[in-house]
Amino acid sequence: GQQVMQIPQYQHVQEGEDFTTYCNSSTTLSNIQWYKQRPGGHPVFLIQLVKSGEVKKQKRLTFQFGEAKKNSSLHITATQTTDVGTYFCGSSNTGKLIFGQGTTLQVKP
Amino acid sequence: GAVVSQHPSRVICKSGTSVKIECRSLDFQATTMFWYRQFPKQSLMLMATSNEGSKATYEQGVEKDKFLINHASLTLSTLTVTSAHPEDSSFYICSAQGLGGIVNEQFFGPGTRLTVL
Question: What is the pLDDT, as a whole number, of residue B67?
Fold first, then answer.
């Protein structure tokens, strides 16, 4: 079945440094979604990308969808302590959302 | 925005008992709800897709007789963990897909932490 691989599993950064998490699939994805889960919380939808090569920005967050629609990335510029959490990519196929393994971000103040 | 609630938020039970978890979409109708399970430091694993008025579709490896799902209305789905055992202890999260808005966007409930003693 459809699988989405996400790396790295963990990332520790100093506040102010940048952060990037990557998702890859062996098959072409119809869409890619990104969610953030704070410690002890539930996933919150961030964005959805559907077009080949699409790039979207939300303040310090930049989301990209690869030209072949097999990979995606989330880049955070100048991290802040409020960015702490686990970031999941996921792809929806026939309504089912399959998540990547998630990248847990720790930010040292 | 769309709100999904779950009840209870936390439950501790003895081995062998059954536990029912409710998932409600508070301000929208959800024809489809999803149930996930998340073990500590792991990703969310889809257990089943719950469709209003029809039988749930279970993912491979999920026992349908152990995890009973009922989607009786457009705003309520329930998951019953029958004869719970310690290995069923986990964080159970539901999500709902509404009509309109961003296609494929799912709204997650706050989750239910189940501990089986």
Answer: 97
